[in-house]
Amino acid sequence: MLAVEQLHKSYSTAQGPLQVLRGVNLTLARGSSLALMGESGSGKSTLLHLLAGLDRADSGRILIDGQPLDNRGETALARWRREGIGLVFQQYNLISSLDVAANLAFQARLAGRHDPVWAAHLAARLGLGDLLQRYPEQLSGGQQQRLAIGRALAGRPGLVLADEPTGSLDEASSDEVLALFLQLVQEAGSSVLMVTHSPRLAARLQQRCVLHQGQVAA
Ligand SMILES: Nc1ncnc2c1ncn2[C@@H]1O[C@H](COP(=O)(O)OP(=O)(O)O)[C@@H](O)[C@H]1O
Ligand SMILES: [Mg+2]
């Protein structure tokens, strides 16, 4: 469903252009899971931002079901962000003025795919079933993180992009949350690309690749 071809991305800095991605290639089949590893600063978040349509590459192509993402206009990109993907970042980006139930359903509603039965199932599986009327500030860090996972999956997006989603949890909790995350991704029928530092967590996904010196190696 996803193919990345010869993707290049640089940032302009005070010291001149910083080449971060130098010809990245990768593919992800529908329904499969890929762990993206690589040392800090290797460009993992940069790649996720490009895939999410939050930033544009200098050159190269991102194909979604064979259709290029790169040459879409702003409206189509906004639609991709709203309807095509689910994002789980390390900062949860929950909406503080909305309760748990509304945060969970937020993106699914925008995408026109709110399904109360699926939302209730997600809430129950994520241990949020009794917390639906609370606000994000009234949740523990782990509960906020599970809510962010639920929100990303509520609309059953084709692609879930996760940037170190369990990075702030201890080892035992991150193993447990990751197992739950992967199971729910599968139930949602989504593909997932997950950035992680942890070879232990990466081993739980179907495929692995490493970003190094601007390129991806298996
Ligand atoms: N907006 C930006 N402007 C300038 N440099 C950036 C910007 N975003 C990231 N970088 C730099 O690009 C490199 C890759 O960053 P990033 O994609 O966040 O790496 P990773 O997620 O693998 O740690 C780093 O050297 C970082 O400092
Ligand atoms: Mg990063």
Describe what this molecule looks like in 3D.
The protein has about 220 residues and is α/β, with parallel strands linked by helices. It has a single domain, classed as Rossmann fold (3-Layer(aba) Sandwich). It has helices spanning about 45-50, 75-85, 100-110, 115-125, 140-155, 170-190, 200; strands at about 1-15, 15-30, 35, 60-65, 65-70, 85-90, 160-165, 190-195, 205-210, 215. It has a six-stranded mixed beta sheet with strand order 6-7-8-3-9-10, sandwiched between helices. A four-stranded antiparallel beta sheet has the order 2-1-4-5, covered by helices on one side. Strand 1 (about 1-15) and strand 2 form a beta hairpin. Helix 3 packs parallel to helix 5 (about 140-155) and helix 5 (about 140-155) runs parallel beside helix 6. The longest helix has 18 residues, at about 170-190. The radius of gyration is 17 Å and the shape is globular. The protein starts with a strand and ends with a strand. The model has no long low-confidence stretch (mean pLDDT about 95). The site of magnesium ion has 3 residues, from helix 1.
